[in-house]
Each structure stands twice: as structure tokens, then as C-alpha cells.
Amino acid sequence: MTSLRCWRALLPALAAALLLVPQTAVAQDPTDPAAPPRAATPDRPSYDVTLRSDDDGSRWTGRQTVSFRNADRTPLRSVDIRLWGNGTDGCGAPDKPSPIRVGSVAGGIPRPLTVDCTALRIDLPEPLRYGARTSISFDVSITVPDRVHRFGKDGAHRYLGNALPLLSVRDAQGKHLDPDVGLGESFHTLAGDFRVVLDHPRALRVPATGTTTRRAGAPGRTVSTSVARGARDFAWAAGPFRSRTVTTPGGVRLNAYWTAATSPEGVAVDLKDAVGSVDEFGKRFGRYPYGELDLVMSDNLDDFGSMEFPGLVLLWTEPEGSAVVHEIAHQWFYGIVGNDQFASPWLDESFAQYATELYYREDTSTCWDDHGEWPSDTAAVTRSMAYFADGHRSEYGQVVYRRGSCALHDLERLLGGTEMAGMLRGYVRDHWLGVATTADFKRAAQSAAPHDLGPFWTEHRIH
Asked: Taking the CA atoms of the chain, what radius of gyration do you get in angstroms?
């Protein structure tokens, strides 16, 4: 999500969040014949979506088809669709329904919504055998909430992050039906392909994940078609944005969009840092795979800071710039190298912060001592979002962003700069468009170390 630079601005919101009653993960039913598969499934998803907006981009309706394969030896009898856009509003009220609604399901039998209306189980008509593919389709209705948020409104601008229904993951741990705890991210998806057709008024500019082509639609309307390969999510925005396109020396197309109130100085700083970081991270971790990257900037996103999606980042931009480098680093750590963000938030946030500090050449030689004592005896870099949501919200930034990134800098000092860089390139290569765990990273680091790293993991509370 946001970098340390923007973290201070989030403290009032976090203080308010302490008043919320934390949610807990949904227990798995051991009698469910569909759980727990061993391999991550359903995999190789393909999303084909057609949506039409109203006059100002506040409401989108249409049809979505999802095809997928069963990667596990156990026959797949149902799938779960996550409606993450309902995370804040839950099941709504009779006069104000949930912002994401699904209906007219074909290819399966829908069950009642669960996990505060963020999870929809669809039973398949017959068990899907190992290696076989099938598809389901459904109508989608998206109403953008009236709040400044990654899924919300900003004046005449609309942000549709976490709005598109996505397949949930099942693996050796069972079904991943974790809740949205209102802090950080709870997402866990497998990389797939997207083809999203957005029919919208011509006056609206619509940045989106993937490579986008546009053609004239009905009178006064434009049809934007975005295609993304190997992406974990799809996000878009709509509004009267100003825009500019540049191409980095490394060949990545950057499409910048910003609101009229956003400072020109901030836009210039963001573009400069985006050009430098996307190329540097490409050299350091592996070439950026999505061809183009959309930067969506506003001076009014301070309620949640900034947010990453594959091929698109939302940026709270002030005259001195934004967390653009941190969010671009997430294209590698979360986008390319996936992780279960509920179970292991450090695998994307700590790594993105570490990469950001490398880019800015920050002095981190004393960072471990500079952070002082651990906030509690139970705090650890590898804690899950369940831990932070359950009475430890104030620890999240200090532990995941600060101590997590500092642990990586300490590891670099232990291994050596060249060895650390080579190890990370191999780690990214080995988990390219896959999902990594803490155990995977510890194995990669140990393979580059001349001695046992056990004491290092213990000291840095990486369990």
C-alpha cells in the first residue's frame, strides 16, 4: 500500500480503526469435500468482462465470465468468488445495498453470500477433475461508494480498485476466505489473464490495468478494451483527468493521469521517479512484464495514501511527489511475486519499502537500532493481518514497514550487496507470476549465505 512517507498521514485513521471490532478468518469446514486441496487452485484463470457505465462513471453494469482449471488432484466441486469491493460496506442495508452485486449465475449454483458479503460460493454442476477447465458467468453491478477511497469517488473522478469479482484460492491451508479488516490488504489471488471492455462517456478518461485500445462507440461514447496477461487483479478509474504519456529509456510506457487540483510540481516529481524506478527495478529484479503502467494522481487521496494494482497505481500526490516508487516496487512484490497478503503482509510491504530505500540510496546502516524497542513481546515481522487487526493495529506500520525493511537491509549487510542482489533476482525468477511464502524466501537467502541464518531470523523475529 503506502510508503513510510505517507504512513504518518494515516495515523489518525488508524487511531479511529482501533475502535472497530476486529473480524476473524472464517473457519474451514473439514467435511467440505472441496477443501482442502493441496495445490493452489483454481489456477490459470481467464476473466472476460464487458461493462457499461452511467453518465459520470458512478455505476457500471454488465457480464463477467471466468474460466479456470483445477490444478489439484482432488475434484473441485465449488469455487469462491471474492467481492472485495464490499469489504467496507459489508452487506449494506435495505435502502443501501452492497456496492458489488452479482446475479444470473450460469455454470453453477450460487450460495448465500458470506464473510460480510465479500465471498460468494458457486457449486459446480459436476466435480471438475484434475487438469480440466470450466467456466462460470454472471451479471455484475458496481456502484462506486461516495467516499474518497481506492474504491470510491474524488470529486468528478471515480476509482475502481478491488471492484472486479475475483476467484479465491484454495490450497494446502484450505479455502482462503479471510476478511477485509480495514487495515492493509487481505488479498490472495493467482495470476491470470484479463480482457475487460469498458463502454463509457467520451468525456471520461479511463486509465486501466493492461494495454488499452479505444474506439468510438454509440454517439458520445467510447469503448476502451484493456488486455492484461499474468495479472492478479484489474483496476480502473474514470473522470476528466489530465494526461501525459512518456516512455522510459528501458521501453516501459508510462501513462500519467491527474486531477486538475493536483500540483504540476508533484506530477513532474512522480513522473521522474516513476521513469527512474521502473527501469531500475527492472534491472534489479527482472523486466517489468506488463508493457505499460498507469499512474493515477490526486491531491485528495490522503485518507488512504496510495495503492498498487497490477499495471496501475493510485497516488496521493503533493508538490513534493508521492509514494510512487513504493507503489511501483509493488509491481514486483505482490504483482510479479505474489503472496498471501493476509497471512504474510511483510512479503510485499517490507520488500517494497526495502526497494524504495534502495532507489533513494537512503542510509540504513543504523536502522535496526534507530527503531528502538519492539512495540510488544508478541510483535514479529512475519505476523499476519489477523494479529494486527486483533488489538495490535498500532504495531502494523512500525513492524511491517520499518522493521521488515530494515531486516532486509541487515540481511544485505550480512550477505554482501552483490550476493543479496543475485539472491533476490533468483527469488523473483523462481516465483515469477507465482506465489511465494516466508519459507521460500528463507530458503533462497540461506542458499546465498556462507553460514546458518537461524540466529538472524530469530533476532529479527522472522518466523
From this structure: 21
pTM here is 0.92
> Domain map of the chain by residue range?
4-14+41-331, 346-459
Q: Which residues contact 260 (CB under 8 A, 6 or more apart)?
A: 240, 242
Run of H or E residues at 415: helix 404-415
Of the options 3.40.50.150, 2.60.40.10, 2.40.50.140, 2.60.40.1730, the CATH number for the domain spanning 4-14+41-331: 2.60.40.1730
Question: Residue 241 and residue 158: Cα distance in Å, rounded?
Answer: 10
How crowded is residue 35: how many other Cβ atoms within 10 Å of its Cβ?
Answer: 19
Give the model confidence (pLDDT) of 200-219 as tens digits.
Answer: 999 999 999 999 999 999 99
Record the cell numbers describing residue 260, joined without a space: 486538475
User: Which residue is it, cell 485500445?
Assistant: 213
Listing from the earlier edge strand, what are the strands of the sheet with 166-167? 109-110, 119-128, 76-82, 166-167
Residue with cell 508493457: 291
pLDDT at 300: 96
Judge contact between 144 and 152, C-beta under 8 A. Answer: yes
- Total residues found in the chain within this entry: 463
Q: Which residues of 297-332 are buried (b: 16+ CB within 10 A; e: fewer)?
A: bbbebbbbbbbbbbbbbbbbbbeebbbbbbbbbbbb
Q: Check if the beta carbon of residue 194 is closer than 8 Å to that of residue 47.
A: yes
Q: Using CA atoms, how far apart are residues 18 and 14, in angstroms rounded to an integer?
A: 6
| CA 378/CA 375 separation, integer angstroms | 8
* Preceding omega of 42 cis (within 30 degrees of 0): yes
What is the band of 112 on the pLDDT scale with cuts at 50, 70, 90? very high
Q: Which helix (H) or strand (E) holds 338?
A: strand 337-338
